[in-house]
Amino acid sequence: MERDMRAASAPPGESPAVAGPPPRVRVVGVSKTYPTPDGGSARVIENVDLTLAEGEFLAIVGPSGCGKSTLLRLISGLVPVSDGRIVVAGEEVIAPPPRVGFMFQRDTLLPWASVSANIAVALELNGTPAAERPARIAALLKLLGLERYADYRPSALSGGMRQRAALGRLLAYGPELYLMDEPFGALDAMTKMILGRELLRIWSQDAKSVVFVTHDIEEAVGLSDRVVVMEGPPGRIKSEYRIDLPRPRDFREVRLLPEFRDVCERIWRDIGRHAEAE
Ligand code: ADP
Ligand code: MG
User: What pLDDT sits at residue 168?
Assistant: First the structure.
């Protein structure tokens, strides 16, 4: 009961102080402990509080191993919390909640199925009637510039094309909450720029709630409304930055603004040792 009360009223500074829809995600006092090979245990996430507003684009940055992916997995319900609670769309997470979509650094496309068939699976999963699927697939392929690759299997595509297809499948599923774990992390700089730009363009048309994990500060600032900096292990939230850059934004051009450089610089300094190594 006490926990319920805590969850119902967001602590100050955690969520935008505006009246509106309830938050999409609420992480309250969450910790995660994993067993270690020597029979002991390791604290991987420690006492994390985080609120994601409806329609907010949140980026999580932090050094490798600080617990970003673990936090995302806890929100996804794929991994249970050790302490605390996570509420998605008003329901406590005990298993993967409905209408949540994932995207990872390496695509998880079905290798034996064509791009179209991979997208079709997502449409089937979300209950799109069979008669409507071909038009929806065609629209998504067009949106992502994949028309010519509809019948290709993932192994015949470049890394960038595969991530486009994975994004197409995610959009086809139509989640209310996007959980993205370094989805562009394995791509070259140019492809990353193009896909980041497309993601922002798509998001600006239909703003869904997004948690986007990355170790790329410029990517985080370019995309998001708020950047949370993690440190660890054990993973904790170190600080957060509201990104007041104009919307809609062009993922590349926004980098030319002095405010963009300024906030990136502040985050670099905050993360510390990386900036010093430059
Ligand atoms: P990040 O995504 O920030 O690089 P991770 O969340 O992947 O960090 O990992 C954070 C810490 O949790 C690491 O020390 C890692 O070894 C540990 N960890 C992650 N998953 C497991 C697991 N399934 N079992 C044990 N330890 C894990
Ligand atoms: Mg990770």
Answer: 94
Atom number in ligand 1 closest to CA 66: 3
Q: Which amino acid is at 206?
A: D
pTM, two decimal places: 0.90
Both tokens of 138, joined, read 């065609």
Write b or e for each residue in 223-260: b if 16 or more Cβ atoms lie within 10 A of its Cβ, otherwise e. Answer: bbbbbbbbbbbbbbbbebbebeeeeebebeebbeeeeb
Average pLDDT of 88-106?
A: 92
Number of C-beta neighbours around residue 137 at 10 A: 23
Instruction: Give the type of residue at 174.
Output: G
- Nearest alpha-carbon partner for 60 in 25, 23, 92, 108: 25
Q: 226 by DSSP, 3-state: which?
A: strand
Closest CA to ligand 1's atom 13: 65
Does the beta carbon of 65 sit less than 6 angstroms from any atom of ligand 1?
Answer: yes
Q: How far is the CA of 30 from the centre of ligand 2 (A)?
A: 18
- 92 phi, psi to nearest 5 deg: -65, 135
Q: Is the CB of 41 under 6 A from ligand 1?
A: no
